[in-house]
Amino acid sequence: MQHELSHFHFLYPLWLLALLPLGGLVIWLAYRRSRMNRWDTVIDPSLLALLRLPLEVPPHQIRSPWPWLALAWTLAVLALAGPSWQQKQVNLFKSPASLVLIMDLSPSMSAADLAPSRAVRARYGMDDLLSAIHGSRIGLIAFSDEAYTVAPLTDDANTLRHLLPALTPEIMPSAGDLLTPALTLAHKLLQGIPAQHQHIVVFTDGYSDQRSALQAVIRLKAQGIIVDVVGVGTPQGAPWHEGTSSWVTDNQGHPALTRLNEPMLQQLAQSGGGSYVRLEQLPLLFPQLLNQAAPWQNGQATQAHGHEANNGGIWLLPLLLGVVAFLARWGWL
Questions:
Q1: Omega before 235 cis (within 30°)?
Q2: Contact 240, 111 (CB under 8 A)
Q3: In 3D, which of 83, 109, 216 has the Cα closest to residue 169?
Q4: Its pTM surpasses 0.90
């Protein structure tokens, strides 16, 4: 009993302020009652007894609803305040994985060798990836000539899923295909976030800053951050256009083709300690990501124990209902 009393507290103590109006009402009623029926102050008590009507009920026998209303008020306030004197132990699970998705939104992602376009198909792949991974902190970055944070690290995959439809090359303020700024920004998102496993997954059809990007993934690998690459497109390539302008042409005036440079992407993944897959092979990457982004499946999840207070206000409800029923029975409600 002493142990339980030592843990007694109110979960919502601000509700106790509702007792202040009740105290003021009680004081006012007491003062008002003391001012009523005080004929004994002006009439001799022996004469006052003869002046009373025979059927008049003495003041002390008059039933008043105010004490019962005050009791109901008090019980209701205490129940709303949530008295708690017991705690229960709960298990807490926390995934030690953080994942950043990088989306290439350079003009070449508008090519239609993957119908309806590379960008649309990449979004579908990201949606499948979000459905396969649960409980991890996931961030989203888009890049062209500069990198932009679409969403910081969050464990709410639905929020990221709602942001995907807006990712098109047309939303980027300027054209380009520089991957290094996106890798640097992904590193900043992962910094300061404690995690046993940190991953970056790049969805791209290619990039122009090959040397600096390789150096960036090597630095990331040295810090324990794995970089996987998903190739979006086909080696045969397809015409592409910038913004709403006509097709991009070569020096002879023919439509230029943007082709998937798989050797470059494979080298990037190898340097980052990760894997390279084509977009249509993305499910092959899931087992590797699930082993690190959902480690509880292998018993590696961080398990902790916490305590949750029980709300004992529910035990006051039968008393409150009894008082209300009594008031209703006497016609005071």
A1: no
A2: yes
A3: 109
A4: no
